[in-house]
Amino acid sequence: xxxxxxxxxxxxxxxxxxxxxxxxxxxxxxxxxxxxxxxxxxxxxxxxxxxxxxxxxxxxxxxxxxxxxxxxxxxxxxxxxxxxxxxxxxxxxxxxxxxxxxxxxxxxxxxxxxxxxxxxxxxxxxxxxxxxxxxxxxxxxxxxxxxxxxxxxxxxxxxxxxxxxxxxxxxxxxxxxxxxxxxxxxxxxxxxxxxxxxxxxxxxxxxxxxxxxxxxxxxxxxxxxxxxxxxxxxxxxxxxxxxxxxxxxxxxxxxxxxxxxxxxxxxxxxxxxxxxxxxxxxxxxxxxxxxxxxxxxxxxxxxxxxxxxxxxxxxxxxxxxxxxxxxxxxxxxxxxxxxxxxxxxxxxxxxxxxxxxxxxxxxxxxxxxxxxxxxxxxxxxxxxxxxxxxxxxxxxxxxxxxxxxxxxxxxxxxxxxxxxxxxxxxxxxxxxxxxxxxxxxxxxxxxxxxxxxxxxxxxxxxxxxxxx
Amino acid sequence: xxxxxxxxxxxxxxxxxxxxxxxxxxxxxxxxxxxxxxxxxxxxxxxxxxxxxxxxxxxxxxxxxxxxxxxxxxxxxxxxxxxxxxxxxxxxxxxxxxxxxxxxxxxxxxxxxxxxxxxxxxxxxxxxxxxxxxxxxxxxxxxxxxxxxxxxxxxxxxxxxxxxxxxxxxxxxxxxxxxxxxxxxxxxxxxxxxxxxxxxxxxxxxxxxxxxxxxxxxxxxxxxxxxxxxxxxxxxxxxxxxxxxxxxxxxxxxxxxxxxxxxxxxxxxxxxxxxxxxxxxxxxxxxxxxxxxxxxxxxxxxxxxxxxxxxxxxxxxxxxxxxxxxxxxxxxxxxxxxxxx
Lengths: 468, 341
What we know:
By secondary structure, chain A is mainly α.
């Protein structure tokens, strides 16, 4: 379900046409039309999952069906029984995720086994996202006594194709009512709202993220600290444009269908503090961890709040990937959050530009733990950047000249990336907390489409978060 | 909604036009090879006017464009050669189709196959497809060599961010040096680009000690064989025939055995290989310009003579027995296995 491929659109457009035909044929019969829309949407979502891979579809169906059966059975149980049920259900729902994503790391890296078959496991697309979404549904349904929806509404909630593969992780309170009301009227007003987001998302992915990926110095083994920092900076923007690109496209597609998803990114690189950064980056995951884990541990109200933050962020790191680098990434992010909270609690606040600079610099550093999945590479890069002797500019220039295409691409797309973030900043200031609004006008869309065509790279990469 | 759709349409059209203008008129690299191809067009016309005798159309990358002097080959050996070389970055298919376009009945298409890059860049690149489109238009799709697919058509119209960003950067910082081969080269009337660039001493030495010794040779794969069959069909459709020549590469002479084995595979597959005695492996550093596959003027004179002399003889192609004899005399079997002492 890669929005950046022609195959996805060649599948989606005929399917939407089919839905539109069904709408027209049943326009006089409201109930039948609504029911038909829901089943067609479910069929479309499951088809798109199945086209991605059969394993993906089967694992998804296993997780959702299990959750449905348990929740349905537990609907009329006592609160204590519901808690016990949840205590059993959540680990069961996590099993496929643990197996496909973490078995290799746990058994081979930690336990020292050599089970090669685990190394070849392919992670079903979206498993981290929909597993958490379904767990959230189960908790809300059983603990907060929400009524069970109909089967088709539940399945549409779980499988809604724009967001199932790479988020946002939706809550039942946000998405389920919309799904229950789903009519798929395919109105031009919805398309007018959705198409600009699709264009912006594709621009972020195809024109920015994919080009930055070409500029990236894969497995850099040299000793120039400047190159390592350059790589960090490139990845900083790459992961943002890649992930936000997906989220914006998903948001746009959903808007076209009359559904409003959560905005998963709110221009995180304009954040003035690390806390603000995490309120703007992958908002759905941050909120999920906050509501289901952090608050469950007592949140900020306990003396252990710092430990709670560290635990939550370490788990967040593990969620992203099975590797020590992800664990360290999560832990370092958690430490930064704790430090910021400590300063904030004492009333200390940095001036805007300084706060932004420190936050941005910190993230540029921290992302290195994210992309350096090989321990020896991570170790090498850390050694390089913490050795003052590696900051020779002439060596840096030599390295750039030896790979002048990458150097040129880096410069060009870093300038463009900063320009985009600057526009986000001004847009956020002008239209309160709508950092992408300035990209959505018809004229802006036209310019973005022009840039999409001109800056197209023939090297396309899968969305990074598909690996999670 | 109308404003939005209109804006998107305008963006698409403007983007498409911009890309076509850049590809067709601005891209310095494409312009350089296009000028050379224009010279080849004129040379081709001149040869055809002079005589109806068959010509030898040499196709490949810059290892052809910068390494063969058709005028020398004609003047000294009577070989009617046409230099249809493109750029290695275009991909073999694109370079082949540029040569096919010159073929007339009785001609030979002599394709450059670099033994050290066998199978690499066998296909088409965006740059190659765009160059073919610029030169040939829809004619580029007249053979199975370049199929009409959504992918190839999309390459015609899509942008190339790397080239564009490089262009803008160079325009800002080094406007007098937009493309390396716009300077220190001379374009001759035959289409040969005489290359006066050089490589710094010491840097060139690392190119020798070639890793492509016999023990690491690569067999002809199915994709390569399929491509050659398609090319043979394209030539046959024009009443022409296909042959291979091994282009010049810097290497120690012991690599010639490796190249002979490569040639053996081609001949065994029914593709004639020109009997150029060095197999394209030249160890004289002075024969090379800036790259291990670009010849200096001295190198061009040597290799053009060597190739033309081979073509001019009554039996210009290797036979299997000749190649086998050569390979065995150097201690190997045609399969690449070392003969036990």
